């Protein structure tokens, strides 16, 4: 019997592992298929305290992983399909058929990139459409690409793409950008970045070779216009990864796990949540790590009282 199973391998999961194993609890972390989570697809993280010159996202999570392991957190590469039981102890079902008994569970499964859901998009994923510039920008050397979205991630993706592409056009559905001033200024200062504000994407066009462009609606005139491009990077936010819970925990209207104010407690005693899967607002590496510590401390108190 484990004290705690941690589901998810981003900063929230690894931080929970560091705290729990350091406190002497027997715990095991199930990584999910994208080990390390979203930080592995970002470039330089400049706002994580302790690294004055920034740190590569991938390096940051790998260091967290080793820190958790060195105190005794066990790591299993795999996917949790189901959590069985209405109260402690729970049975955690893995995709390899293993069933793990545990007193408590911490859900730290993060969130995944959202797509536009427009005509032609799904067929073009991997053939021009991507949600990760760090992963795919390399394929667009001296080519023209689009970034859809007006948030910080869209600015980051556009800036990263300028290292490879000859032209990067940001397409955003409103006249105002949601991104922070510092990110907008950096993007505006880059000559390779062009702007199409107040345009809504309606259709991805492709031929046998892959994507050819994007049809957009001019929101002022209502006219449909076509933009030729070799690649489209979708940066319109994320969807919390809660499907495997299958209604077990109370979620908010956007699908994020609801936690009791100021705690990591979910609607089921003994199951805790940390990181982006329960945070519709902040979604930063540092806030995810902080909530991982809160989840671990709440779990410790819960197990002490069992
Ligand atoms: P955001 O929610 O901040 O932005 C999403 C953007 O996508 C918005 O501009 C939104 O438009 C647009 N959008 C949403 N749905 C659609 C749609 N169906 N069609 C077209 N456009 C759409 O998400 P991000 O992923 O950019 O950022 C997530 C969080 O991470 C934020 O809190 C951000 O500040 C933070 N972050 C901070 C960084 C930093 O500080 N360095 C770096 C990266 C992320 P609209 O504006 O009209 O709603």
Automatic annotation (TrEMBL):
EC number: 1.8.1.9
Protein keywords: Disulfide bond, FAD, Flavoprotein, NADP, Oxidoreductase, Redox-active center
Keyword match DNA damage: no
Highest taxon, organism lineage: Bacteria
FAD/NAD(P)-binding domain location: 2-292
SUPFAM superfamilies associated with the record: FAD/NAD(P)-binding domain
Assembly and oligomerization: Homodimer.
Family: Belongs to the class-II pyridine nucleotide-disulfide oxidoreductase family.
Protein's recorded name: Thioredoxin reductase
Gene for this chain: trxB
């Amino acid at each position: 019997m484990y004290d705690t199973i941690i589901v998810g391998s981003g900063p929230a999961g690894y931080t929970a592992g560091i705290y729990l194993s350091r406190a002497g609890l027997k715990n095991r972390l199930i990584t999910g298929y994208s080990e390390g989570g979203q930080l592995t697809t970002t470039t330089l993280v400049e706002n994580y305290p302790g690294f004055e010159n920034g740190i590569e996202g991938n390096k940051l999570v790998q260091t967290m992983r080793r820190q958790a392991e060195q105190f005794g957190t066990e790591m299993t590469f795999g996917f949790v399909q189901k959590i069985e039981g209405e109260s402690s102890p729970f049975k955690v079902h893995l995709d390899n058929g293993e069933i793990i008994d545990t007193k408590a569970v911490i859900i730290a499964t993060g969130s995944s990139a959202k797509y536009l859901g427009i005509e032609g998009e799904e067929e073009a994923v991997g053939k021009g459409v991507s949600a990760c510039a760090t992963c795919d920008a390399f394929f667009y050397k001296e080519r023209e690409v689009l970034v859809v979205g007006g948030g910080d991630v869209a600015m980051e993706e556009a800036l990263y793409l300028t290292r490879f592409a000859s032209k990067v056009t940001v397409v955003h559905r409103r006249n105002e950008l949601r991104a922070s001033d510092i990110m907008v200024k950096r993007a505006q200062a880059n000559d390779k970045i062009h702007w199409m504000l107040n345009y809504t994407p309606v259709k991805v066009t492709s031929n046998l070779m892959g994507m050819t462009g994007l049809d957009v609606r001019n929101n002022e005139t209502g006219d449909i216009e076509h933009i030729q491009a070799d690649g489209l990077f979708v940066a319109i936010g994320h969807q919390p990864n809660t499907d495997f819970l299958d209604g077990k925990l109370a979620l908010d209207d956007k699908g994020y796990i609801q936690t009791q104010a100021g705690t990591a407690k979910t609607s089921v005693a003994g199951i805790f949540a940390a990181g982006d899967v329960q945070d519709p607002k902040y979604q930063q590496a540092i806030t995810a790590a902080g909530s991982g510590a809160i989840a671990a401390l709440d779990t410790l108190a819960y197990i002490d009282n069992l």
